[in-house]
């Protein structure tokens, strides 16, 4: 095991952990496209602004897009996320398609930096060395070699009758009890 994680910043996850379980919330809040109007290295970003920007803005109404023309500077995409993180992408001599791919990637990310060690809300002094428990932890290894469907493995373990048979038995018992009550009244 390496100790690389000791030199990383540590922190808690700031984005919703189950984003998309109920309703998906895009974490990309703002995109700033910085480019030069004349320089050749900004051609791909300028082409994106002319051809694809309107479609991108229509497809992502929750993301604000700013254009910032600058003289004699390299083109840059700045993405700002809901958790406050910023991500910079240098777009020097990118094509329009590459800019589109980068924006789609930024749109689907959560904005968390990869250079952060995530901390958990629980702690133990004696962590398990056996690994996490799974439903297959104590299963018979012979199941790995079984051919399915297998009638022997499909037999119920504890139940001798089906649920339908059990319901029919309860219904018949209730009918008998009702008849017994009626005969006792007479």
Automatic annotation (TrEMBL):
Record keyword Transmembrane helix present: no
Compartment(s): Mitochondrion
GO molecular-function terms, A-Z: structural constituent of ribosome
Domain Ribosomal protein/NADH dehydrogenase residues, every copy: 37-110
Annotated Gene3D superfamilies: Glutaredoxin (3.40.30.10)
SUPFAM superfamilies, A to Z: Thioredoxin-like (SSF52833)
Main subcellular localisation: mitochondrion
InterPro entries in the cross-refs: Ribosomal_mL43, Ribosomal_mL43/mS25/NADH_DH, Thioredoxin-like_sf
UniProt entry keywords in alphabetical sequence: Mitochondrion, Ribonucleoprotein, Ribosomal protein
Coiled-coil stretches: none
PANTHER family given in the database record: 39S RIBOSOMAL PROTEIN L43, LARGE RIBOSOMAL SUBUNIT PROTEIN ML43
Family: Belongs to the mitochondrion-specific ribosomal protein mL43 family.
Protein name, as recorded: Large ribosomal subunit protein mL43
Organism: Oryctes borbonicus
Lineage: Eukaryota, Metazoa, Ecdysozoa, Arthropoda, Hexapoda
